[in-house]
Amino acid sequence: MSAADVYQTIIAPAEGLYKEKVSKFIGLAYPVNSEEEIKEILVQLRKTYFDARHHCYAYQLGTSGNQYRANDDGEPNHSAGDPILGQIRSAGLTNVLVVVVRYFGGIKLGVSGLVSAYRTAAAEALKAATMIEKTETVMLEILFDYIHLNTIMSLTKEYKLEIKKQDFNTTCRLLISVRKNLQETVTARLAHLATVKIR
User: Fold this and answer.
1) If residue 187 lies in a helix (H) or strand (E), which one and from where to where?
2) SS3 154
3) Given 33, 56, 86, 106, which residue has the most CB atoms within 10 angstroms?
4) What is the pLDDT of residues 74-132, one digit of tens each?
């Protein structure tokens, strides 16, 4: 089924290696969900590969393809980050970070050589990864009076909504995970019920 909220990503971190004229390019691919997570990984990699010359990377987040970045980390403009991003896109992936760590071997590769090396290292890392299809979701918190419990629970079954937390006191509270393309429909159905609050 093809839907706007379905996307391809990778299950777990993966690694690839490419060598060219004594330079070593280590490709590292990670599944990610936010820019904060990406920053943490980059900080950790700079500690792990502290003696490397460059840590070039690219990432893409979300199903729209609008949230992305490519970074050359001191290499000539567009010789590293863009080729890495190109590999993420040609694999049809999102919510992925690919970092290529370069150990300089003393021989310059030229811009076309760098483009080829970064592209290949990124491709090797993604080739080593296991792909998975996922659905983009949104978290909704629903506050309601006990009289609406049956109606709301029926709604969660009808739309196969995942209940993350539930609390049935004086005011009932549900935290549910909703497919992004169902968010408007579910919110509209809940809005018809008096005293129901959604956030």
Assistant:
1) helix 183-191
2) helix
3) 56
4) 999 999 999 999 999 999 999 999 999 999 888 888 889 999 999 999 999 999 999 99
Cβ-based neighbour number of residue 41 at 10 Å: 17
What structural domains and CATH numbers belong to the chain?
6-134 (3.30.230.30), 136-198 (3.30.70.240)
Please give the pLDDT value at position 3.
Answer: 64
Please answer whether residues 54 and 80 qualify as being in contact, where contact means their C-beta atoms are separated by less than 8 angstroms: yes
Q: For the whole model, what pTM was predicted?
A: 0.75
Question: Residue 75 burial (CB < 10 Å; 0-12/13-18/19+)?
Answer: buried
Cβ density class 20-38: b for 16+ within 10 Å, e for less: beebbbbbbbbbbeeeebb
What is residue 19's predicted lDDT score, i.e. its pLDDT? 94
Nearest to 172 by CA among 188, 151, 187: 151
